[in-house]
Design goal:
Elements (H helix, E strand, L loop, with lengths): L6 H9 L8 E4 L2 H7 L10 E17 L7 H10 L3 E4 L5 H13 L4 E4 L3 H9 L5 E5 H10 L2 E6 L24 E9 L4 H16 L1 H9 L3 E6 H21 L3
Parallel strand pairs: 3-4, 3-5
Antiparallel strand pairs: 1-7, 2-5, 2-6, 2-7, 2-8
């Protein structure tokens, strides 16, 4: 169900009959961003969180001929003059990561919200922006082809798909962001059914066939059990609220 950055779909899941026959895919940070902004007709308590399946690591990318080669270069360039930095909409993971970097370094970007990664990609490839906060899946092919340059991963550790790329943390900047993709059911599902749903998801994620298909489809897996994913969502909601309180959208 498309619309409003996932909000309509999330609300549909929350309203569904809690009989175990309706589950839904949720993604972050939009799931919690809608709550923080006060627009959502749901809260995290509206769901039984089954678990997380996949992630898309955050990255920072620049045009291929850019003199910016590190996160330190990005900070210095931003302090020296105004930089135009593309993000995938206000309240997105890109936006939150850019705001993290601003807060950490004391710089202020000219943030350019786009309508999606296609516009971001075109802006980087065409040299129309100085940098972009994006996701790995959106720029890894262009980076490997030499058409753009990723300067940092925004995850705790390096990624196996780009093992030589240092993280922002390694470069001295504690900026962490990823998009996640998990499954939930409506709150109120019978406890026994909850257990069956959770077990089903865990067994699928553990299967060799699923892992092989995910690798073939360039899906970056990040399995999390329901309790762990709920804890992650709560922490992310607090982090998102801190950004929203300073710069509401």
């Amino acid at each position: 169900m498309p619309g409003s950055g996932g909000q309509k779909g999330f609300e549909e899941i929350a309203r569904a009959r809690p009989d175990g026959y309706t589950i839904g895919l949720v993604f972050t940070p939009q799931l919690v961003a809608h709550v923080v902004s006060g627009r959502a007709q749901y809260t995290l308590d509206s769901f039984h969180v089954m678990g997380n399946v996949a992630q898309d690591p955050g990255i920072v990318a620049v045009p291929k001929d850019s003199p910016i080669k590190t996160m330190g270069d990005l900070a210095e360039a931003a302090k020296a003059g105004s930089l135009t930095v593309a993000v995938n909409g206000i309240g997105s993971d890109d936006f939150l990561a850019a705001k993290q970097f601003e807060e950490l370094t004391g710089v202020t970007f000219n943030l350019l919200p786009t309508k999606g990664s296609t516009e971001q990609k075109a802006a980087i490839l065409g040299g129309h922006v100085d940098a972009a906060f994006m996701n790995l899946s959106q720029m890894i092919k262009q980076h490997n082809a030499g058409d753009a340059r990723i300067i940092a991963l925004l995850t705790e550790e390096r990624d196996e798909h780009l093992p030589d790329m240092p993280t922002a943390r390694e470069q001295g900047y504690e900026v962490l962001m990823r998009a996640t993709r998990g499954f939930v059911a409506p709150a109120g599902v019978d406890t026994d059914i909850q257990g069956q749903l959770d077990t089903m998801l865990a067994e699928i994620m553990a299967s060799d066939e699923f892992k092989a298909n995910a690798k073939k489809g360039a899906i970056f897996l990040l399995p999390m059990a329901g309790g762990d994913y709920l804890a992650y969502l709560k922490e992310l909601q607090e982090q998102t609220k801190a950004v929203y309180d300073k710069a509401p959208w």
